[in-house]
Each structure stands twice: as structure tokens, then as C-alpha cells.
Amino acid sequence: MKFKIFLLSLLLSTGSFAAEKTFIRIGVQSGGTVEWELPALQDALKAGQADFQLDIRHVANAEAGKIALQSGAVDIIVSDWIWVSGLREQGADFTFYPYSDISGALVVPSNSGIHSLQDLKGKRLGIAGGELDKNWLLLQTLAKQQWDMDLDASVEKVFAAPPLLNEQLKQGRIDAVLNYWHFAARLEAEGYRTLIDGRGILHDLGISEPVANIGYVFKQSWADRHEQALKQFLDAGKQAKQTLCSSDTAWQRIIPLTKINGEATRKHLRQNYCAGNIEHWGEAEQQAAGKVYLLLHKQSKQALTGKSEQLQPGTFFR
């Protein structure tokens, strides 16, 4: 009996009976903002007693991340709620937790004569993301509502990769560019003028609440099994973002990950990144997302959203 008691105490002292930590496999794109936050997030984990450990899996691009999540190779990626709603319509149980509401922007040279969407008529417009880019669809909706203008037919569209579009704007080969936020930030830092950004588009469409553009996506069934670990991960992610926005030392550590030269551009990038923090995500913001969904559904003629005219229940993680 004494031997059994001794053996039990030995096992407990070595942690053999301690609860195993949850390994959260997260799919991360190289150079993406999630990768920026990993050093600060790891520091937050070391400082506290977390119930999880991160298993970082790098993915080549957004589509590769989606494939990895659907195949079960990772537990979490960053993606958008439109995609999540479409999956739920097909019977999947993925759900979305907001990460950032930062969006792209329509940028023109500082001396450009383009001051409104009407001035885009007959111009060459560079568009990142293709025909179904959300900002492009919403910009068309705004032009139709405000000026009864068919923007798609009014401009000469140029689709290309974001960095190539920036170069074409600098060379004068296109007149304006609708680009992702970090590429728009690079142009703004060099003196280019933002005509309107994603938030401005929504505001002019009558949607005043901030709407998350991207967020963490994971299976609801997985979240139910790992509730405590997931909560701690989401809290640690918020803390990491706040650290990058408040600590110059933490920001200096991740500068190589941004792959940007020039202090002015880095400063501008940081400002825009921090401006995307989600302060609140409640019923009002989710209803606003539902309005955005309906606009995208109509403008894309179901090509982006699928047949459903409304967001699927459970799209947003509660």
C-alpha cells in the first residue's frame, strides 16, 4: 500500500496526470498580419498558464489555407464570413470570429483629376482580387445608387496581382487602383491620394456600423470540444495585437516580417493595421454584415454568395 501511495505521488510530481494541453493548429500565410502577431502572441503564452500550445502551419495563400482547413490539416485559419456562410449552406459547421475590419482602398495619384466615382468614366482602373472582389462589387453598388452609373461598363478594368497594380499606377499605365489595404497604405505613404476606402463605401451605402472583413474560421464542433483553449487563444490574439499597437519595441521585432523598407511606409502601415482593431462585435454589427451580404448577393448575381439571400445561421461564432 505504501508503495502505491509513493508511486501515485511520484506520477503527480512529474506531471504524468496533468491535463494535456490542446494543440491548436493554425494555418498562417507568410507575410500576413497573423504572422506579425505570432512573436507577441508567443510572449503572451509564456507569461501565463495557457491551456493550449500553437502548432503553426504555413500555407502558400488564402486558397491553400481554405483547403487545409476543410481537409482537417489545420484547426483555424483567417478568412471571410461570406465563405463561411456558403459552407454552412452546404451543411458544414464552420463559424467565424472577427479579426479585423480593415479594408482596401481606391487610390489615385496626388495630382489626379479624379475626385469622385463619376470621374472614373473612361479611365483605366486596376482591381485586385478579380471580378468578385468584395470592394469592387460594393463600389459598383455605390456608383449605381448615387449616380445611376454602371461602373463596370464605364471603366477599362485591369486585373492583376496587388504589387503589379501599384507599379502600373506609378508608371501611369492605369489611372486609379482598387487595392488591398497594405498595398494601398504603401501608396498613401508615398503621397498618393485615397479617394474612398472600404469603410467609406459602406458608410455611403448607409451602413454606419463597423463590419469585420476577415476573422478566425474554425469548426463549431471543434470549438465545442476545446472551449477553454479557444477562448484563451482568442484573448491572447487580442493582447498580441494591442501589444504591437502600443509597444514600439514589439513592433520593431516584427519589421522584417512586413517586408517593407522605409520608416514612413512602416509607420503608415502600422497606423492602418491598428485602425482595423475590432472594438465591438454584437448584434448591431452582425445585422450590418447581413445588409452587406445582401448587397453582395445582388451585385454578384449569386456568384459570390450562392443562392441564399441571407447569411446562414451560425455563421458568426457566439
TrEMBL record:
Originating organism: Candidatus Methylobacter oryzae
Domain SsuA/THI5-like: 104-243
Keyword Signal attributed: yes
Protein's name according to its UniProt entry: Transporter substrate-binding domain-containing protein
PANTHER family: ABC TRANSPORTER SUBSTRATE-BINDING PROTEIN, ALIPHATIC SULFONATES-BINDING PROTEIN-RELATED
Tagged with keyword Signal: yes
InterPro entries in the cross-refs: SsuA/THI5
Keywords: Signal
Signal sequence, start to end: 1-18
